[in-house]
């Protein structure tokens, strides 16, 4: 109960600041919308060769996961700003739970992601995506778990590096292989065998696969199990990492 | 209120392949009684902030123990945090948030209700001359206002022990004097015990009952300002002679009182015990021998002199030397 209250206080404070300065939320949202509007039509002619009937049913799930990963990766930058102004230290000197300090922030990131995901899916439907509601709900839920994981990792990284200059290249370094090996833009199955095998080691590809199959209304295959398993595992690891940095963070 | 024994904190730093250990705090004992205002004085990098961070549970000591407000800082850290107020060097208010919101959220993290913290916060705003700034963002406040807001944050849960880390650094003299008044009020009006760090001698002198001097991670002195000053042998008397050729004669006169003197161009200075009594005789003697003075100056020992006597270095030199340690500590912070 106390933990929830503390998390809520942190969450409300974060949300208030986001609403005051919504530039990042809008930029984060704009990116997948641009992909949908400017890249989606290119897929229309290719989609049959990729083994899909509807370009948007193929593309929206990928964008959803991309939004979850990349949007959340930037959460840590605002934490560095707060740390520099002594906010993190001031919070840590209160009796509040360290986990609540992280969870309150993650709640904001996940809520933000949820709103962005809704907009993306509605826009997808408007452009002709065909997907059952059940599949979309599951896909969004999985995206939120992945987003929570990435936001936790980003917060941990922010507190560990305490410098945008160190953090930006690290995130770039992580983002490129994630983007290229997770099949967000094109399915990995169209590539050569070695590339497909390499992408087996990329957890986010399994998550993209899971969201894609759920959007097709297919809940029987192993893709859902693999994707959900990875999402939950990543989330648990990242929250553990984040909490431990909030606990021992110094200087 | 504070009982620390043998506190040690070691930072590990790496320069290339060479690993070095910096003992930022190296065996600190510290006692602060209820109702005391203690000044923790030392140059930058002496270990003041590191000690404070251990006492406020933000940093775990590598060695030693400390009880703060009756609780152990390691095993009962949450109880310690509940009992203390801490105003760090940087403060803790986000520059782009509204002051009142920040204060209320902070108070609520101590488990207080919204109504409680709102009432208390508004009282504190009034007492610390921040009336009308409840909805203002700290980025639009003056340095002095911002600092007073930081103090409001530290007092919102009515702590009985308050830690202030470099409370007036970077303020202009007027804002500084104003803040001093508010700091004195902490005890006189609230009955709080205060431990404040500073590298300004006059600040420690003006605010603290007792001064603890730290240098290179160790406590080098612990006494009242008056007693510390008494350790410096005498007041500094400086004579400026009108005719530079007579400086030798003037120096001889002063030497008979001071023992050792320093001569520079047409001035001579030396330390004279109880100068108030000795100077009239000195003036008569100078007059009798026809040495005309341009000026005479008697300066009571400052804490800077005390620091020099205790460590063999002036505070300013000590700060220059400690830059390396500071850099190491920053690096350590970044590496974590």
TrEMBL record, chain A:
Residue stretches spanning the membrane: 21-43, 55-80, 110-129, 135-158, 170-190, 223-242
Domain ABC transmembrane type-2 span(s) in chain numbering: 23-249
Keyword presence, Cell membrane: yes
Cross-referenced Pfam families: ABC2_membrane
Gene Ontology annotations for the cellular component aspect, listed alphabetically: ATP-binding cassette (ABC) transporter complex
Keyword Transmembrane helix (UniProt): yes
Molecular-function GO terms, alphabetical: ABC-type transporter activity
Protein's GO biological process: response to antibiotic
Its membrane topology: Multi-pass membrane protein
PROSITE patterns to which the protein is assigned, alphabetical: ABC_TM2
Key words of the record: Antibiotic resistance, Cell membrane, Membrane, Transmembrane, Transmembrane helix, Transport
Principal cellular location given in the protein's record: membrane
Subcellular location: Cell membrane; Membrane
Family membership noted in the UniProt record: Belongs to the ABC-2 integral membrane protein family.
Entry protein name: Transport permease protein
Species for this entry: Nocardioides marmoriginsengisoli
UniProtKB/TrEMBL annotation, chain B:
UniProt key word Membrane: no
GO cellular component: plasma membrane
Family recorded in the similarity comment: Belongs to the ABC transporter superfamily. Drug exporter-1 (DrugE1) (TC 3.A.1.105) family.
Membrane topology: Peripheral membrane protein
A biological-process GO annotation: daunorubicin transport
Ranges where the ABC transporter domain occurs: 2-241
UniProt organism field: Nocardioides marmoriginsengisoli
Protein name as annotated: ATP-binding cassette domain-containing protein
Keywords for this protein: Antibiotic resistance, ATP-binding, Nucleotide-binding, Transport
